[in-house]
Amino acid sequence: MRSFLTCLSRSLAFACLLWTPALHAQPQLQNQAVQLALIEGLSGPFANTGEAVIRNLVWGVEAVNARGGVTTAEGKRLLALQRYDSKGQSEEALTALRAAIDAGAQYILQGNSSANAAVLIDAIQKHNEREPQKRVLFLNYSAVDPALTQEKCSFWHFRFDAHADMRMTALMQVLKQDSKLQSVYLIGQDYSFGQAVLREAKQQLTALRPDIKVAGDELHPLGRVKDFLPYAAKIKASGAQAVITGNWGNDLTLLVKAAKDVGFEGKFYTFYGNALGAPAAIGDAGIGKVLAVAEWMPNVPGVESVKFYQAFKQRFDKPHEDYVHLRMRMLIEALAQSIEKAGKSDPFAVALQMEKVEVNLAGQRGKMRAQDHQFQQPLVVGLMAKQGTSDVPFDVEGSGYGFKMLRQFKAQEVELPSSCKMSRPL
Length: 426
Prior knowledge:
The chain has 426 residues and is α/β, with parallel strands linked by helices. It has two domains: 4-162 and 305-376, Response regulator (Rossmann fold, 3-Layer(aba) Sandwich); 165-294 and 378-414, Response regulator (Rossmann fold). The protein has helices spanning 21-24, 27-31, 47-66, 90-102, 114-130, 164-175, 192-208, 229-237, 250-262, 278-282, 303-315, 326-342, 347-354, 411-414; strands at residues 4-9, 14-19, 34-40, 70-72, 75-77, 79-85, 107-110, 137-140, 157-159, 183-189, 213-220, 242-245, 267-270, 290-294, 358-361, 364-369, 374-376, 379-386, 401-409. It has a seven-stranded mixed sheet, with helices on both faces. Strands 11-10-12-13-14-18-19 form a seven-stranded mixed sheet. A three-stranded antiparallel sheet has the order 15-16-17. The radius of gyration is 21 Å and the shape is globular.
Protein backbone atom coordinates (compact mmCIF):
# COMPACT_ATOMS: atom_id res chain seq x y z
CA MET A 1 0.00 0.00 0.00
CA ARG A 2 1.51 3.28 -1.02
CA SER A 3 1.22 6.20 1.40
CA PHE A 4 1.76 9.89 1.05
CA LEU A 5 2.51 12.85 3.27
CA THR A 6 0.37 15.89 3.81
CA CYS A 7 1.90 18.85 5.66
CA LEU A 8 -0.15 21.65 7.15
CA SER A 9 1.53 24.99 7.80
CA ARG A 10 1.56 26.35 11.33
CA SER A 11 2.92 29.55 12.82
CA LEU A 12 5.41 27.76 15.02
CA ALA A 13 6.34 24.89 12.75
CA PHE A 14 4.73 22.34 10.47
CA ALA A 15 2.16 19.77 11.47
CA CYS A 16 2.53 16.69 9.30
CA LEU A 17 -0.07 13.95 9.23
CA LEU A 18 0.50 10.64 7.52
CA TRP A 19 -2.39 9.20 5.58
CA THR A 20 -2.94 5.98 3.67
CA PRO A 21 -5.45 5.60 0.84
CA ALA A 22 -7.20 2.66 2.48
CA LEU A 23 -7.92 4.77 5.55
CA HIS A 24 -8.55 8.05 3.77
CA ALA A 25 -12.25 7.22 3.53
CA GLN A 26 -12.46 6.63 7.29
CA PRO A 27 -12.32 10.11 8.86
CA GLN A 28 -13.22 8.74 12.28
CA LEU A 29 -9.79 7.05 12.37
CA GLN A 30 -8.04 10.23 11.28
CA ASN A 31 -9.85 12.30 13.92
CA GLN A 32 -8.80 9.89 16.66
CA ALA A 33 -5.17 9.70 15.60
CA VAL A 34 -2.52 9.24 18.28
CA GLN A 35 -0.58 12.50 18.28
CA LEU A 36 3.23 12.42 18.09
CA ALA A 37 5.23 15.66 18.21
CA LEU A 38 8.76 15.87 16.83
CA ILE A 39 10.71 18.71 18.47
CA GLU A 40 13.96 19.15 16.59
CA GLY A 41 16.39 21.61 15.06
CA LEU A 42 14.99 21.89 11.53
CA SER A 43 16.77 25.14 10.68
CA GLY A 44 20.22 26.49 11.41
CA PRO A 45 23.60 24.70 11.25
CA PHE A 46 22.18 21.23 11.95
CA ALA A 47 19.07 21.36 9.77
CA ASN A 48 20.33 18.45 7.67
CA THR A 49 20.34 16.17 10.70
CA GLY A 50 16.80 17.23 11.54
CA GLU A 51 15.59 16.49 8.03
CA ALA A 52 17.22 13.03 8.20
CA VAL A 53 15.26 12.37 11.38
CA ILE A 54 11.99 13.40 9.72
CA ARG A 55 12.49 10.96 6.85
CA ASN A 56 13.14 8.04 9.17
CA LEU A 57 10.22 8.80 11.48
CA VAL A 58 7.87 9.44 8.56
CA TRP A 59 8.84 6.05 7.15
CA GLY A 60 8.13 4.36 10.46
CA VAL A 61 4.75 6.05 10.93
CA GLU A 62 3.79 5.23 7.35
CA ALA A 63 4.55 1.55 8.01
CA VAL A 64 2.23 1.47 11.03
CA ASN A 65 -0.55 3.38 9.26
CA ALA A 66 -0.24 1.20 6.15
CA ARG A 67 -1.31 -1.81 8.22
CA GLY A 68 -4.28 0.08 9.62
CA GLY A 69 -2.69 1.92 12.53
CA VAL A 70 -2.71 0.62 16.09
CA THR A 71 -5.45 -1.51 17.62
CA THR A 72 -6.88 -0.21 20.89
CA ALA A 73 -10.00 -0.95 22.94
CA GLU A 74 -11.61 1.92 21.02
CA GLY A 75 -10.72 0.41 17.65
CA LYS A 76 -8.10 1.20 15.05
CA ARG A 77 -6.20 4.49 15.35
CA LEU A 78 -3.67 6.10 13.06
CA LEU A 79 -0.43 7.70 14.19
CA ALA A 80 -0.07 11.41 13.38
CA LEU A 81 3.34 13.06 13.33
CA GLN A 82 3.65 16.80 13.87
CA ARG A 83 6.96 18.61 13.68
CA TYR A 84 8.19 21.64 15.59
CA ASP A 85 11.40 23.53 14.85
CA SER A 86 13.42 24.13 18.01
CA LYS A 87 16.25 25.70 15.97
CA GLY A 88 18.50 23.57 18.16
CA GLN A 89 17.88 25.88 21.14
CA SER A 90 16.64 24.80 24.56
CA GLU A 91 14.26 27.74 25.03
CA GLU A 92 12.73 27.12 21.61
CA ALA A 93 12.39 23.43 22.50
CA LEU A 94 10.46 24.33 25.65
CA THR A 95 8.21 26.67 23.68
CA ALA A 96 7.59 23.87 21.18
CA LEU A 97 6.81 21.45 24.00
CA ARG A 98 4.10 23.73 25.36
CA ALA A 99 2.62 24.17 21.89
CA ALA A 100 2.68 20.43 21.22
CA ILE A 101 0.93 19.59 24.49
CA ASP A 102 -1.68 22.29 23.85
CA ALA A 103 -2.26 20.72 20.41
CA GLY A 104 -2.96 17.33 22.00
CA ALA A 105 0.36 15.53 21.63
CA GLN A 106 0.86 12.55 23.94
CA TYR A 107 4.30 11.53 22.69
CA ILE A 108 7.30 13.85 22.33
CA LEU A 109 10.15 12.77 20.05
CA GLN A 110 13.58 14.45 20.13
CA GLY A 111 17.23 13.50 19.97
CA ASN A 112 19.67 15.76 18.12
CA SER A 113 20.90 17.52 21.26
CA SER A 114 21.53 16.09 24.69
CA ALA A 115 21.28 19.60 26.14
CA ASN A 116 17.79 20.01 24.70
CA ALA A 117 16.87 16.50 25.82
CA ALA A 118 17.87 17.31 29.41
CA VAL A 119 15.62 20.37 29.60
CA LEU A 120 12.75 18.45 28.00
CA ILE A 121 13.08 15.61 30.51
CA ASP A 122 12.91 18.09 33.37
CA ALA A 123 9.99 20.03 31.86
CA ILE A 124 8.00 16.88 31.08
CA GLN A 125 8.58 15.52 34.58
CA LYS A 126 7.20 18.73 36.10
CA HIS A 127 4.32 18.93 33.63
CA ASN A 128 3.23 15.35 34.30
CA GLU A 129 3.26 15.94 38.05
CA ARG A 130 1.30 19.18 37.65
CA GLU A 131 -1.23 17.96 35.07
CA PRO A 132 -1.66 14.19 35.42
CA GLN A 133 -4.64 14.22 33.04
CA LYS A 134 -2.45 15.55 30.21
CA ARG A 135 0.70 13.50 30.74
CA VAL A 136 3.15 12.95 27.89
CA LEU A 137 5.94 10.48 27.19
CA PHE A 138 9.38 11.43 25.84
CA LEU A 139 10.88 9.09 23.23
CA ASN A 140 14.56 9.88 22.59
CA TYR A 141 16.18 8.56 19.42
CA SER A 142 19.71 10.04 19.58
CA ALA A 143 20.49 12.25 22.58
CA VAL A 144 23.24 10.04 24.00
CA ASP A 145 24.66 11.81 27.04
CA PRO A 146 24.87 8.86 29.48
CA ALA A 147 23.46 11.01 32.29
CA LEU A 148 20.02 10.99 30.66
CA THR A 149 19.46 7.36 31.71
CA GLN A 150 21.64 7.54 34.80
CA GLU A 151 21.55 10.39 37.32
CA LYS A 152 18.93 12.28 35.24
CA CYS A 153 16.79 9.24 34.45
CA SER A 154 13.02 9.68 34.41
CA PHE A 155 10.07 7.31 34.21
CA TRP A 156 8.72 9.50 31.40
CA HIS A 157 11.85 9.22 29.24
CA PHE A 158 12.87 6.27 27.02
CA ARG A 159 16.12 6.25 25.02
CA PHE A 160 16.38 4.15 21.85
CA ASP A 161 19.99 4.92 20.93
CA ALA A 162 23.05 3.44 22.62
CA HIS A 163 24.46 6.11 24.89
CA ALA A 164 27.93 7.58 24.40
CA ASP A 165 29.72 5.19 26.77
CA MET A 166 28.17 2.17 25.01
CA ARG A 167 29.22 3.51 21.61
CA MET A 168 32.71 4.24 22.92
CA THR A 169 32.94 0.69 24.28
CA ALA A 170 32.38 -0.70 20.79
CA LEU A 171 34.86 1.71 19.17
CA MET A 172 37.52 0.98 21.77
CA GLN A 173 37.26 -2.75 21.26
CA VAL A 174 38.39 -2.10 17.68
CA LEU A 175 40.94 0.60 18.55
CA LYS A 176 42.73 -1.53 21.14
CA GLN A 177 43.57 -4.08 18.43
CA ASP A 178 45.55 -1.48 16.44
CA SER A 179 49.03 -2.23 17.74
CA LYS A 180 50.62 0.50 15.59
CA LEU A 181 48.56 3.25 17.16
CA GLN A 182 50.61 5.22 19.68
CA SER A 183 48.96 8.66 19.88
CA VAL A 184 45.46 10.10 19.53
CA TYR A 185 43.85 13.53 19.46
CA LEU A 186 40.55 14.06 21.26
CA ILE A 187 38.22 16.77 19.96
CA GLY A 188 34.54 17.37 20.52
CA GLN A 189 31.66 19.79 20.79
CA ASP A 190 31.54 21.80 23.99
CA TYR A 191 28.31 20.64 25.61
CA SER A 192 27.21 17.71 27.74
CA PHE A 193 27.46 15.05 25.02
CA GLY A 194 30.82 16.18 23.62
CA GLN A 195 32.23 16.41 27.12
CA ALA A 196 30.97 12.92 27.95
CA VAL A 197 32.59 11.45 24.83
CA LEU A 198 36.03 12.85 25.63
CA ARG A 199 35.78 11.91 29.29
CA GLU A 200 34.88 8.31 28.45
CA ALA A 201 37.56 8.13 25.73
CA LYS A 202 40.25 9.01 28.26
CA GLN A 203 38.93 6.52 30.81
CA GLN A 204 38.75 3.66 28.32
CA LEU A 205 42.17 4.47 26.82
CA THR A 206 43.67 4.32 30.31
CA ALA A 207 42.01 0.96 30.94
CA LEU A 208 42.57 -0.69 27.54
CA ARG A 209 45.60 1.01 25.97
CA PRO A 210 47.60 2.91 28.61
CA ASP A 211 50.52 2.98 26.16
CA ILE A 212 48.67 5.40 23.85
CA LYS A 213 49.53 9.07 24.31
CA VAL A 214 46.78 11.70 24.23
CA ALA A 215 48.42 14.30 22.00
CA GLY A 216 45.58 16.79 22.31
CA ASP A 217 42.31 17.21 24.16
CA GLU A 218 39.96 20.08 23.33
CA LEU A 219 36.38 21.19 22.96
CA HIS A 220 35.00 23.71 20.49
CA PRO A 221 31.72 25.71 20.37
CA LEU A 222 28.73 23.70 19.16
CA GLY A 223 27.58 24.66 15.67
CA ARG A 224 29.45 27.96 15.58
CA VAL A 225 32.82 27.11 14.05
CA LYS A 226 32.87 27.91 10.34
CA ASP A 227 36.57 27.27 9.75
CA PHE A 228 38.14 24.17 11.28
CA LEU A 229 41.52 24.69 9.62
CA PRO A 230 43.17 25.97 12.84
CA TYR A 231 41.93 22.87 14.68
CA ALA A 232 43.08 20.58 11.87
CA ALA A 233 46.50 22.24 11.83
CA LYS A 234 46.88 21.58 15.57
CA ILE A 235 45.86 17.94 15.09
CA LYS A 236 48.49 17.45 12.39
CA ALA A 237 51.18 19.33 14.32
CA SER A 238 50.57 17.20 17.42
CA GLY A 239 51.79 14.12 15.62
CA ALA A 240 48.62 12.22 16.50
CA GLN A 241 47.97 9.11 14.43
CA ALA A 242 44.21 9.17 15.00
CA VAL A 243 41.35 11.42 16.05
CA ILE A 244 38.57 10.36 18.39
CA THR A 245 35.46 12.53 18.10
CA GLY A 246 31.76 12.47 18.81
CA ASN A 247 31.16 15.41 16.46
CA TRP A 248 28.01 15.24 14.35
CA GLY A 249 26.36 17.23 11.57
CA ASN A 250 28.32 20.07 9.99
CA ASP A 251 30.76 20.11 12.90
CA LEU A 252 31.99 16.72 11.77
CA THR A 253 31.87 17.38 8.04
CA LEU A 254 33.82 20.64 8.33
CA LEU A 255 36.37 19.03 10.66
CA VAL A 256 37.16 16.15 8.30
CA LYS A 257 37.27 18.49 5.30
CA ALA A 258 39.81 20.67 7.11
CA ALA A 259 41.87 17.62 8.12
CA LYS A 260 42.00 16.55 4.50
CA ASP A 261 43.02 20.07 3.42
CA VAL A 262 45.98 20.22 5.82
CA GLY A 263 47.16 16.77 4.82
CA PHE A 264 46.34 14.86 8.00
CA GLU A 265 46.68 11.16 7.17
CA GLY A 266 45.60 9.57 10.43
CA LYS A 267 42.49 7.65 11.32
CA PHE A 268 39.18 9.05 12.52
CA TYR A 269 37.33 7.07 15.18
CA THR A 270 33.87 8.62 14.99
CA PHE A 271 30.33 8.20 16.24
CA TYR A 272 28.75 9.63 13.08
CA GLY A 273 31.32 9.57 10.27
CA ASN A 274 29.20 7.32 8.06
CA ALA A 275 26.92 9.95 6.49
CA LEU A 276 25.68 13.58 6.31
CA GLY A 277 28.42 14.56 3.89
CA ALA A 278 31.41 13.24 5.81
CA PRO A 279 32.40 10.36 3.43
CA ALA A 280 32.18 12.57 0.34
CA ALA A 281 34.13 15.32 2.12
CA ILE A 282 36.96 12.96 3.01
CA GLY A 283 37.08 11.15 -0.32
CA ASP A 284 39.74 8.56 -1.06
CA ALA A 285 41.82 9.83 1.87
CA GLY A 286 39.33 8.17 4.20
CA ILE A 287 39.51 4.68 2.72
CA GLY A 288 40.69 2.35 5.44
CA LYS A 289 40.98 5.26 7.88
CA VAL A 290 37.53 6.46 8.93
CA LEU A 291 35.63 4.30 11.40
CA ALA A 292 32.07 4.79 12.63
CA VAL A 293 29.84 3.08 15.17
CA ALA A 294 26.07 2.66 14.89
CA GLU A 295 23.26 0.27 15.69
CA TRP A 296 23.12 -0.69 12.02
CA MET A 297 24.66 0.21 8.65
CA PRO A 298 23.61 -0.64 5.07
CA ASN A 299 26.36 -3.25 4.63
CA VAL A 300 25.39 -5.31 7.66
CA PRO A 301 25.10 -8.78 6.10
CA GLY A 302 21.84 -10.72 5.96
CA VAL A 303 18.76 -10.96 3.79
CA GLU A 304 16.54 -9.03 6.22
CA SER A 305 19.08 -6.25 6.51
CA VAL A 306 19.31 -5.85 2.74
CA LYS A 307 15.51 -5.85 2.37
CA PHE A 308 15.25 -3.17 5.05
CA TYR A 309 17.74 -0.90 3.31
CA GLN A 310 16.26 -1.42 -0.14
CA ALA A 311 12.79 -0.56 1.18
CA PHE A 312 14.08 2.74 2.56
CA LYS A 313 15.82 3.52 -0.74
CA GLN A 314 12.61 2.85 -2.61
CA ARG A 315 10.76 5.33 -0.39
CA PHE A 316 13.54 7.97 -0.35
CA ASP A 317 15.54 7.59 -3.52
CA LYS A 318 17.54 10.83 -3.68
CA PRO A 319 21.25 10.51 -2.75
CA HIS A 320 21.12 13.21 -0.07
CA GLU A 321 18.24 11.35 1.64
CA ASP A 322 20.33 8.21 2.17
CA TYR A 323 20.82 8.09 5.95
CA VAL A 324 18.88 5.23 7.52
CA HIS A 325 18.43 4.85 11.28
CA LEU A 326 17.22 1.41 12.32
CA ARG A 327 16.68 2.66 15.88
CA MET A 328 14.07 5.19 14.71
CA ARG A 329 12.03 2.47 13.05
CA MET A 330 12.42 0.40 16.20
CA LEU A 331 11.19 3.35 18.27
CA ILE A 332 7.99 3.65 16.21
CA GLU A 333 7.45 -0.11 16.30
CA ALA A 334 8.03 -0.15 20.06
CA LEU A 335 5.46 2.59 20.49
CA ALA A 336 2.91 0.80 18.31
CA GLN A 337 3.41 -2.48 20.18
CA SER A 338 3.15 -0.77 23.57
CA ILE A 339 -0.06 1.06 22.67
CA GLU A 340 -1.63 -2.18 21.46
CA LYS A 341 -0.60 -4.11 24.57
CA ALA A 342 -1.90 -1.30 26.78
CA GLY A 343 -5.12 -1.20 24.75
CA LYS A 344 -5.06 2.59 24.83
CA SER A 345 -2.78 5.55 24.14
CA ASP A 346 -2.60 6.79 27.74
CA PRO A 347 1.14 7.58 28.26
CA PHE A 348 1.32 5.99 31.73
CA ALA A 349 -0.24 2.71 30.56
CA VAL A 350 1.96 2.73 27.46
CA ALA A 351 5.09 3.42 29.52
CA LEU A 352 4.43 0.34 31.64
CA GLN A 353 4.32 -1.77 28.47
CA MET A 354 7.30 -0.06 26.87
CA GLU A 355 9.48 -0.95 29.86
CA LYS A 356 9.44 -4.56 28.65
CA VAL A 357 9.07 -4.11 24.90
CA GLU A 358 11.11 -6.16 22.43
CA VAL A 359 11.46 -5.29 18.75
CA ASN A 360 12.73 -7.52 15.94
CA LEU A 361 13.53 -5.70 12.70
CA ALA A 362 15.98 -6.07 9.81
CA GLY A 363 17.44 -9.18 11.42
CA GLN A 364 18.23 -7.27 14.61
CA ARG A 365 16.65 -7.52 18.05
CA GLY A 366 16.37 -4.76 20.65
CA LYS A 367 14.91 -4.80 24.16
CA MET A 368 14.10 -2.02 26.61
CA ARG A 369 15.72 -2.21 30.06
CA ALA A 370 13.15 -1.31 32.69
CA GLN A 371 15.70 -0.17 35.28
CA ASP A 372 16.69 2.98 33.39
CA HIS A 373 14.67 2.95 30.13
CA GLN A 374 17.83 2.43 28.08
CA PHE A 375 17.26 0.36 24.93
CA GLN A 376 19.67 -2.56 24.59
CA GLN A 377 20.60 -3.49 21.03
CA PRO A 378 23.51 -4.73 18.89
CA LEU A 379 26.14 -2.27 17.65
CA VAL A 380 28.41 -2.38 14.63
CA VAL A 381 31.71 -0.71 13.77
CA GLY A 382 32.40 -0.05 10.11
CA LEU A 383 35.43 1.09 8.16
CA MET A 384 35.15 3.42 5.17
CA ALA A 385 35.79 1.68 1.85
CA LYS A 386 35.13 2.09 -1.84
CA GLN A 387 31.74 0.81 -2.97
CA GLY A 388 32.05 -2.44 -4.87
CA THR A 389 35.00 -3.74 -2.92
CA SER A 390 34.68 -6.86 -0.79
CA ASP A 391 31.61 -6.78 1.48
CA VAL A 392 30.69 -3.21 0.44
CA PRO A 393 27.77 -3.52 -2.00
CA PHE A 394 26.20 -0.23 -0.85
CA ASP A 395 27.59 3.28 -0.63
CA VAL A 396 26.12 6.20 1.35
CA GLU A 397 24.55 9.34 -0.10
CA GLY A 398 25.69 8.45 -3.61
CA SER A 399 29.26 9.20 -2.55
CA GLY A 400 30.79 6.03 -3.94
CA TYR A 401 31.98 5.20 -0.41
CA GLY A 402 30.43 2.76 2.01
CA PHE A 403 31.34 1.14 5.32
CA LYS A 404 32.65 -2.38 5.61
CA MET A 405 31.71 -4.21 8.78
CA LEU A 406 34.71 -4.69 11.07
CA ARG A 407 32.90 -5.89 14.17
CA GLN A 408 29.36 -6.72 15.14
CA PHE A 409 28.60 -6.65 18.86
CA LYS A 410 25.74 -8.41 20.56
CA ALA A 411 23.62 -6.27 22.86
CA GLN A 412 25.07 -7.88 25.97
CA GLU A 413 28.63 -7.10 24.82
CA VAL A 414 28.02 -3.35 25.00
CA GLU A 415 25.51 -3.29 27.84
CA LEU A 416 26.76 -1.18 30.74
CA PRO A 417 25.48 -0.79 34.30
CA SER A 418 23.38 2.23 35.24
CA SER A 419 23.32 4.42 38.33
CA CYS A 420 19.66 5.34 37.71
CA LYS A 421 17.48 5.61 40.79
CA MET A 422 14.15 6.11 39.11
CA SER A 423 11.24 7.76 40.88
CA ARG A 424 8.13 5.94 39.66
CA PRO A 425 4.61 7.41 39.63
CA LEU A 426 2.16 5.94 42.10
